[in-house]
UniProtKB/TrEMBL annotation:
GO terms for cellular component: membrane. The chain crosses the membrane at residues 21-40. Pfam families: OmpA (PF00691). It comes from Roseibium polysiphoniae. This is Flagellar motor protein MotB. Residues 161-308 form the OmpA-like domain.
């Protein structure tokens, strides 16, 4: 009995222990279910939103998506436009390079032209000398004309258009068809020779030369003082040419008789400067269609021909020659 009672107690103890374990397991499961329910409720609260808010978010999302698509299209368009602009910039830069190259070339041309202009503006010694000689000749002829007109106010004498000759027109020295100087015309030629004899020493060489820089600052030298005979065209050349030659020769002899020293004025070749030329009707200065024109063409020209050097060396030769006679006592 005692053994049976022990067996019963042991079974009861074992059953009591089993019941405790069961309770504990159920309790643990219950706690786990509570925890799971809590976590499930937490998940739902973070992932679930009201429908109105959801729909609003959907609309905003769609708007953002449309905006993104629009911006993407805009970006593509802008990139295309940028590429076009870059190509245009490259073309413009190339054009700028070409224009700069042209500008540089033109600047170089301008510099060359400026240098040439500066060179041309520089006084050429030969041109300057010839210009001064021309002015000196005009001055001498003007002085000679004024002096003759002071002596013979009614005389028809004038300076040529080129300012290189005194022109005695019409019946100033000779009657029509005549080569002979009347006494009153001889007086005119004699006075002309005297005036010429006074002027020439400063512009010529020879024993009577009296050069100085006061009377001849340009260092001009006379090559020839040419007495030229001219006629109108009324007669044939075989008449006009001898007539013009006779008039020139008669003027020459009247001048040399009146001023013996006039033949002592020499040029650079040491030749007398006074000379004669006859042209007949070959060199009219106006038309022979009128009586006034014919009277103008019947004339004696006293032409001054100056020594004309070919280079600056020739200028120096003239200066040396004039200075040499100027230094003589």
């Amino acid at each position: 009995m005692r053994a049976q009672a022990k067996q019963v107690r042991r079974e009861e103890e074992e059953e009591s222990a089993f019941v405790s374990m069961t309770d504990m397991t159920v309790g643990f499961l219950f706690i786990m279910m509570i925890l799971l329910a809590f976590f499930a409720s937490q998940v739902r609260s973070t992932e679930t939103v009201p429908r109105a808010e959801y729909e609003k978010l959907q609309i905003e999302r769609n708007e953002l998506r449309d905006l993104a698509e629009t911006q993407a299209v805009t970006i593509v368009s802008l990139e295309t436009a940028n590429a076009d602009l870059m190509r245009q910039i490259q073309k413009l830069e190339e054009l700028i390079r070409q224009l700069r190259s042209q500008i540089d070339a033109k600047d170089a041309t301008i510099d060359e032209l400026r240098a040439e202009l500066a060179r041309l503006k520089e006084a050429d010694p030969l041109e300057d000398y010839l210009s001064r000689v021309s002015a000196a000749r005009r001055d001498v002829l003007t002085r000679l004309r004024d002096a003759i007109l002071a002596d013979f106010p009614d005389l028809k004498v004038e300076l040529s258009e080129e300012s290189d000759a005194l022109r005695f027109q019409g019946e100033g020295l000779f009657a029509s068809g005549s080569s002979e100087l009347t006494p009153d015309k001889t007086a005119i030629v004699s006075k002309l020779a005297e005036r010429l004899d006074q002027i020439l020493p400063c512009f010529t060489l020879g024993e009577t030369s009296s050069f100085d820089e006061i009377c001849n600052p340009s260092y001009a030298m006379v090559e020839a003082v040419q007495i030229e005979g001219h006629t109108d065209n009324d007669a044939e050349d075989n008449v006009n040419r001898p007539l013009s030659a006779n008039r020139a020769n008669n003027t020459f002899f009247a001048m040399t008789n009146a001023a013996k020293g006039v033949m002592q004025h020499l040029n650079l070749k040491m030749q007398p400067v006074l000379s004669v030329a006859a042209y007949g009707a070959d060199r009219p200065i106006t038309s022979n269609d009128t009586s006034e024109g014919k009277a103008t063409n019947r004339r004696i020209d006293l032409r001054f021909i100056m020594v004309t050097p070919q280079d600056t060396g020739g200028i120096q030769v003239i200066r040396d020659a004039l200075q040499a006679v100027g230094e003589q006592p």
